[in-house]
Specification:
The complex is a heterodimer of chains A (about 260) and B (about 280). Chain A has about 260 residues and is an alpha/beta fold. Chain A has a domain of about 160 residues: P-loop containing nucleotide triphosphate hydrolases (Rossmann fold, 3-Layer(aba) Sandwich), CATH 3.40.50.300. In chain A, a hairpin with a 2-residue loop joins β9 and β10. Chain B has 2 domains: about 50 residues; about 220 residues, no CATH class. Chain B has 9 helices and no strands. The longest helix of chain B has about 45 residues. The radius of gyration of chain B is 24 Å and the shape is globular. The termini of chain B are far apart. In chain B, about 45% of the residues are buried. Classes of the chains: A alpha/beta (about 260), B mainly alpha (about 280). At the A-B interface, α3 of A face α5 of B.
């Protein structure tokens, strides 16, 4: 379903991905863990085609997309949903219009079909009753759920989640985790980037730990829990000293790595 | 200290330091020119892609979006344009009127005010007002959307940001600028008439007849043509700077500032060349 093979990427003169190889099978939920700056979000951006690798292959839904031009990515992107960290809702549209935006822009459905579908996903993400509010009038957790609803409205085959529970209270996090589990039950292939260990172990079929632009450890939740790799244990238990500590000094800032290359 | 070690004697060190500073200055200038060329190219490509998407404007949603923006841009600049135009016309009439009065030619004030405002001052001051109020706003709005990943979200949804965001803004500002320019011209002439009548003793009809008699179709079309060019420029520069925003709040502020500075320069330079092309 998704296969990255030996992907290299440099941004701002810094090596972000260094021969990353990863595969996500159909219907699987893969959680990507790793310290800030290890290339987790950059990996998701490669899968959706917002970034192009310097070398290596990226296959999504049976198509090799690593060298596709933006206009040729349209058909692949239509089959993928993406949840941004802050929802990335358009602030001048209410929640209902934000969710309906991709359907209305495609002009493939009648207005009644669109309205029905919006109501359906609003119920799915437990936001019914908030449809007419602006993004600025709802909480961060609700914005994330609205972002998720917008990603789901077009029935994606793949869902990519970029830190779906960051900045949320435990109850809001549980709501998001439950939604991810629900999508898993529907057979949707998912990649979840997170720092939330509880969430990771709850939703993952497999977990990949990224370190210095490559996969350091890969396995099921139990395999990762029982791993003897000191880096894995350090990350899971949040220990300051260990093999991952060096990364702080080497990769101080990941915020600039999320630039899209598409103009 | 390092200079001395590298170059030997103090005299040589001074020369080396001078050369090092100069090479730094030259490389800085080169980098600035490179960035400017890159931004110009991006802006021109953006404008070209907007023109390519022009047929997409003929949908009910895009027309509604564009008209909404026209309304927003008009209402956002209407009052300030009226006040600036009124006082510009008054200043123009007072300055030229006092000089003409010394020559006993104050009756000619109508033509000076009318031609200056319709051909030059109207388009120019409207463009500056729209740059400060709308152009910087477009850059800040798109810049904020860029840093908060909203533009990436549109791309992922297979919605072209050019068609969805840029096209309505460029078209709306291209339509609004001539309308506000005509309005500014008329208000400015009215201001000039007040000063001519109450301070210089020139009758309403004398001012009006002289102004209308001297004003040609060419003056009106020159003014309108300039306003259209300025409208496209303000919107394109605002959109370009917005889409090229990097970083967070600081980046958004820089984008808005650059949009104003670049547009001011372009409006002045293009204004001169259009006048030159029309008059010579």
């Amino acid at each position: 379903m998704i296969r990255l093979t030996n992907v290299h990427k440099q941004l701002g003169g810094r090596k972000i991905l260094d021969g990353l190889s990863l595969e996500v099978k159909e219907g699987e939920t893969l959680v990507i863990l790793g310290r800030s700056g290890t290339g987790k979000s950059v990996t998701l951006r490669h899968v959706i085609g917002l970034l192009t690798p310097d070398s290596g292959q990226i296959e999504v839904l049976g198509e090799e997309i690593s060298q596709h031009r933006p206009e040729n990515l349209r058909t692949v992107r239509r089959r993928i949903g993406y949840l941004f960290q802050d929802g990335a809702l358009l602030d001048w549209l209410n929640i209902s219009d934000n969710i309906g935006l991709p359907l209305r822009e495609r002009r493939e459905h009648s207005e009644k079909e669109i309205v029905d579908r919006i109501e359906e996903v609003l119920v799915d993400v437990e936001l019914d009753g908030h449809a007419l509010k602006l993004p600025s009038e709802i909480s961060g957790g609700m914005r994330k759920r609205a972002g998720l609803a917008r990603a789901l409205v077009c029935h994606p085959e793949i869902m990519l989640h970029d830190e779906p529970t960051s900045g949320l209270d435990p109850i809001s996090s549980s709501v998001i985790n439950r939604l991810i589990m629900k999508l898993k039950g529907m057979g949707i292939t998912q990649m979840v980037v997170t720092h939330d260990m509880g969430s990771a172990f709850e939703v993952a079929d497999r977990i990949a730990l990224l370190h210095q632009g490559t996969v350091r450890a890969l396995g099921t939740s139990d395999e990762i829990r029982q791993s003897t790799d000191p880096a894995v244990q350090q990350f899971i238990h949040g220990i300051v000293d260990g093999p991952l500590a060096r990364e702080i000094r080497e990769d101080p800032d990941s915020s600039k790595n999320n630039e899209s290359e598409e103009s | 200290m390092r200079r001395t070690e590298t170059c030997g004697s103090g005299r040589v060190a001074h020369r080396c330091g001078g050369w090092s500073e100069m090479s730094g200055w030259i490389s800085g200038l080169g980098a600035f020119l490179g960035r400017s060329a890159e931004t110009t190219g991006y802006g021109l490509v953006l404008l070209g892609r907007t023109l390519f998407h022009l047929p997409h404007l003929l949908t009910r949603r895009r027309i509604r979006d564009t008209l909404d923006l026209c309304y927003t841009y008009c209402t956002g600049s209407f009052t300030v344009t009226a006040v600036v135009a009124l006082f510009t016309g008054m200043i123009l009439a007072l300055n030229s009127g006092l000089s003409l009065q010394e020559l006993g030619q104050e009756a000619l004030i109508g033509r000076i005010v009318a031609v200056s405002l319709i051909r030059e001052m109207g388009p120019f001051m409207t463009a500056l007002i729209l740059t400060a109020s709308i152009g910087s706003g477009i850059a800040a709005e798109l810049g904020t959307m860029k840093v908060s990943e909203e533009i990436d979200a549109l791309r992922i949804m297979s919605i072209s940001p050019v068609r969805f965001l840029i096209l309505p803004r460029i078209v709306a500002l291209t339509l609004v600028t001539p309308v506000l320019t005509i309005f500014a011209g008329l208000i400015g002439i009215l201001g000039g008439m007040f000063v001519a009548y109450f301070q210089l003793g020139v009758g309403w009809m004398a001012f009006q007849n002289d102004g209308l008699e001297f004003l040609t179709q060419k003056d009106v079309f020159t003014g309108l043509f300039k306003s259209v060019v300025f409208g496209v420029t303000i919107a394109t520069v605002g959109c370009t700077q917005g889409l090229l925003t990097r970083g967070g709040a600081t980046g958004v502020g820089q984008a808005a500032r650059r949009a104003v500075v670049v547009t001011f320069l372009l409006v002045i330079i293009m204004g001169y060349y259009i006048t030159w092309a029309v008059l010579t």
